Amino acid sequence: MIDTRDNKKAQEALILCLIIDTFEKAGIIYNELTNLKFSVKFFLQVPRPEKDANWKSVLEEDYKRLLKTTEHALQSLKRNIYHLKRKYIEYLDRGQKDFMALIAMRACVQQKLNNIIKECRYLSQKLSQIKESSPKYLPTPPFVKRYGNSAIVEFYTKYANDILLNKFLKPFFSSDVKPSISTYWEFRQSDSIFFKEFRENPYLFLNTSYWFQELPIYIPFIVHEIGHWLIKSRFGGEVFKESVFQLEKGIGNFLSQIDIWWPMPKTIAEELLCDAIAMSCFNEAYIFSLFLHRFGHEYGTFIGESKEMEDICDPQSYVGEYIWPNPLSTSIRLGVLCDCYNEYVKENEEESSIISAIKGNLQRIYRDLKEAYQPYFAYIADNVTYFEKKFCEFCVDQLGKTFYRHKTLANKLKDLRRDVREQEEKENEIISILEQVLEINPKINEINRSSAQMLLVDSRFKYAKEKFGQLVAKTDQGKRKEILNDILEDPPPLGRYFRPISNIYPFCKSDNDILEKAKKIFKSSLELWELAFCKVRFDCKVASNQERKTLKISDICESIKNNSSTDQETFLVLSGIYNFVLLRKGFSTKSLPGSEKKQWPPDLTFPYYTVIHSLMELTLSKETKGAGTDDTTNPLPLSVLIQIKLQNRQEHLVDFLKELLSKIEKWPGKKRIFTSVGWEDVIVLVKNISLVQAFWIKAQLFEGFPDMVKRTETTILLDPNFNPGLPSENLENLGKNLDNGDITIYSTIRLETSRTLQRSAERASIKNFCKYCENNELGQKHGFEILDIIPGRFDLLIQWHYSEGFAKFLEHWRKLLDTEEFLEYVTDIQSSILIRKDKFLQLAKENSPPEHNKT
Fold it and tell me: Which of 87, 109, 134 is the last residue of a domain?
């Protein structure tokens, strides 16, 4: 029996869970809007022909409208979150009264967030269409979500196919078919499905909601959608045909007693059955997810809009409205699920505190609806409440007959429950690996580890309990606001932090040997980092110097230095397609509006765009991390970043990391290893090395794992503080152990579009640019020669002189990218450092790294 006082605290913890869920969704959208704003501003700052009437009248106005819409959406989001915080503080100040006003306010804010999602879709589509008509081959920002999600999508797709579909729900399909699922996301608030049924191979497209990938608390909704497919599919529908018919018939008879319009009984029957199927796979976790997603959503219209600004929920305008009996209301769906769980699903006599708290909040809805009406209208709420309670009881009884105790389905459900228990045991093994990694709040103990999903639910629920206790203990509004702001900036443990599970998922199908190896590799806490590849256009003006028409490399370094935070590392890209790289500890989608932390990516004095990836850093010992660093007082300014894609992530990740950790101790420089969350499989960063050591490391990774590594991509980086004008003995070591013919360095150049239509035939011509470089002796001064004209993405290819050594090349490269006479005609420049094949293969055979201080 649950104590009444504990149940009251649990109810309040669930209400805070609703608020936190809205905060998290707002944070995801906020980051999306920030990225869109970044992209639009980039285009607005790109130079265009001064007398191009089409640009002035059409494209520029398009960009300005897009920017205005984005800024309005950002302001709307911030104001709505502010009003929701304010409403919740008022709710606490009044001793948890005005319950319906708070629920309605939260529902209203959710509706506004859903509207912003639609706007994001329109903005992205418009930007994509504009991009199609833009000049080809110029640097242009992406317009999709900020985070590369390939591994996340792969994780969900494999999980849905291997576990949910072909393990849990396979008995409900015909025995001779193997169903499969593809998942993808769109700018929408809820999931939907589209299925295609080929002979013996039924195929489902599952269109997930916008925030599904960032909020794994909603994973159980996958099974609800599969349930719709099961019921309608010719490969699975026969199993449910009688159940749907009997349930539909019973519901139709019940509703026919009340002479008003109702939804189709078949629709109601299918929704309730899909809820029952999902709960059979995920127990309380599905009920909790549905509670977060739908509780009180019908009452969003009880809140009016602010008169000052559209799309803002007014916290003082709770008006109430007529209510109508709805057989598919969230209250009925949650009530049916809670009672069915207690009656047919739970495997022990102890009542779940989460289920009890959800039922308690449903009763509060009924009670407060009645109190919201004037006495002579209260009977309306009474009637609706009475209808929902009786209809809920009826549906629980009918589901017992047509689903849980059905003669055909009962045995299949028994098999499903057995498979669920087996999967929970496997997930417990994975959780044991991630016990420290997942950053469970140390104040939260006795977390339910029965499954990965219940770990998510329980940690979130107990986190909310703890925070509610802190809020109640403070009577000062300012203190309560501080606690809510802390929640905004640091959402619950295992929220979006749970994305790293995609790195561990491959182990759940592996043998015990792999699991033991994984435990050793992930024995320490892993840190989350973000890597931003950044791209500029050199023909964009710097905000601090509007007279100058070019962007110099020194401008980039200075602006980053002035706007960087202490937890950020910066590198210039010496060889690669981007211009600079930012590495920052943390996970920026955790930060929501109102954060006092510096913006990430930083707001710099020139337009640029980013491609951001989330990483987890493996903990290395001090000896391993810094072994081989010969000169700590005067470190080399060169680093190498190698992205590694494995042949088969599921089979090779653990063994590859194990071998890599055993070999990396002998490597030079300062080493770091990351696994990717939604990108390539492994990333290796080695700092303070020479050029030959960079190629030796690449050779060890590519040639040393021929059966595991599919491809590698190498980016050579330079310390932005490197000053070619200052003498340094250590710089001479950068090119040691490389002969003059071993290295070739090229740069490809994209010339700018002319600034005026009249000069287009003259200034933008490749011929005149080559003549300009020759007349001004730019090649002689900066150590390069124009080698060839390239049709397509770039216009010219230049080769750098290497006879004076690598240090001299760095000096020439840095000075050229600070030369206005050269940059005046350049839009983009990308450099590539190539090594002779024979030399590379020779390095691959060497077991120990070349020492940069010896020839």
Answer: 134
